[in-house]
Amino acid sequence: MKPLNSIALLLLTVFGATGCGSSGDNHLSSKSSQVDDKKVDDKKVTPGNTDIRISGTVEKGPFVIGSTVTINKLSEKGENTSTTLVTKTINDLGRFEFTATAGDILQITSTGYYRNEITGTLSKDVLTLRSLYEANDNGQQHANVNLLTHLTSTRALALIKNEGQTFEQAIANAEKEFRETFSSVIAAPQGADFASVSIFNSIDETDSAYLLTVSSLIYKYALTASAANNTASEAELTLLVNKLEEDFGADGNIDDTEALSALANMHAQIDPVTVTEHLKQWVADSGSAKIPDINTYLDSDQDGTANSLDTDDDNDGIPDAEDNQPYTAQLVSDDLSLTTKEDSPLEITVSSNSPLESPIQLTIQSQPQHGTLSGSYPNLSYQPNANFNGQDSFTFVLQQGDLLSREITANIVVSAVNDGPSIAGTPPTTVTAGQAYLFTPEVSDVDLDTLTFSVENLPDWAEFNENTGQISGTPVNTDAADYSGIKLSVTDGSISASLPVFGILVAYSPLAAPETLTTDVEQVSLKRYRVNLSWENVDFSDGYEFQFATEPTFSRPLMEKLTVGNELTFEHEVGKYVWRVRTVNPDGLAGE
């Protein structure tokens, strides 16, 4: 079966359901529903011929072959009529063909999958675009469907229906209004009407470049929104296009300044080299398709000068002639040469340009071997390992959006410094007379310098070793006292270290009991005696504990007394008794 008959059968099925007329040769007519294999020859159309061959393309990027194209005939007031034709695109550049009658006002609607100029891939969902076109009696006519025709179609119909403008006036005014309201996103040429513009093969290539740039900006916006919202880019595209169409259609102005600003910001996100390569792949088999220069309107650095006229398209300070990525700004940061002293932290400030004016991330590629890093861009802190001196380094990369810097190296020289000695230990703070006192501090010096010790307020009974810092001695009761303000220090000749100031309390030793005890008894009555007791005085005594009992264990003494002197007198009845005395030292401790 011939392809034309296949289309005719499809149209018969469609129009059998809708009641609209069509001929098998894709002729828009309400008078006939017969299939006719006869084709109209473009070159034979004459001023009196009502069969006008019209061709066009459907482009977001180009719609794929087999995409549905529906042509509705409208009245002069822009109202739908009963005349409808359904056809399909016939190649992967979105081309379609049909015939109509001169003077017909047509609404062309297409739904299909499309090629994506940003990613180079096919869309995962379909998109619907519209265009308005008035057929004339020219032999060859082009009625394209694209984003520009879609965004202005609702507004043009409103001008026809509500303001009584002719089709030609409405199209011209709607397109003029669009160029003006969209100028904050992209400058527009005063070129051909949008229905005659195609990404490929427009009469004026600047028109093609304008359409390509608008299409790229809108889809890049959709990709960015889908990444932020975790949604499908195709859904974000449809949402944006429909919102812009509705907004513009209301009054010929796009009031959503936030969307316009976001679209303008997409200039910097588009790689024109990649877009151009995708277009080349699409037209590789066509041979005759012309590829527009997106740089005619793309302004990568948004400085108001299109790339084609700008010598530094990405405004990163690298002239395009020397820039390996002239349309995408590069993060530029120099290698670092840094110095610090041993054991001293180093504060590092990383400087870089900021092409995208968004946060910059710093990722460490290799850690330093002799220290630790902390912080985030642009402020890092390097802490060398304890007592390290010498060479160290680390590497990192910067990222801003999709931009990555080269690997940057930070070289660090850690200069040696004299490490002072350290001293530690807890000296005893009490000693009893007659017992030995000994303290040796713990010292270290990473430089292994010769160390010298010194002490302040050393007690007279103590000795000090200048080589080891040892304090030693055996105090006696004559040394009993509280010795304060002792300071033990060590030095390497330059740097000193000291223990906290401390004191030593020398306590009295327990004192021996008096060696000689004397008892003198004198009767004062029949059964009562006066008892005079005395004993020798003991050095350093502060008093004496006296006990008087009937048994030598003194388990139940009859009398106990603490006396300062060395004699005691009292009266007692007749009996056999024992007594004893213990010496009490100045600390209140009784001896044996």
From TrEMBL:
Q: Which intervals carry biased composition (Polar residues)? A: 297-309
A GO cellular component annotated for this chain's UniProt record is: membrane
Q: Name one Pfam family in it.
A: He_PIG
Q: What is this protein called?
A: Dystroglycan-type cadherin-like domain-containing protein
Residue stretches of biased makeup (Basic and acidic residues): 34-45
**Superkingdom of this entry's organism?**
Bacteria
Among InterPro entries, the record links this protein to: Cadherin-like_sf (IPR015919), Ig-like_fold (IPR013783), TSP_type-3_rpt (IPR028974)
**Residues in the signal sequence:** 1-19
Q: Where is this region: Disordered?
A: 23-48, 293-326
For bias type Acidic residues, the affected ranges are 310-323
Give an example GO molecular function: calcium ion binding
Instruction: Tell me the keywords, alphabetical order.
Output: Signal
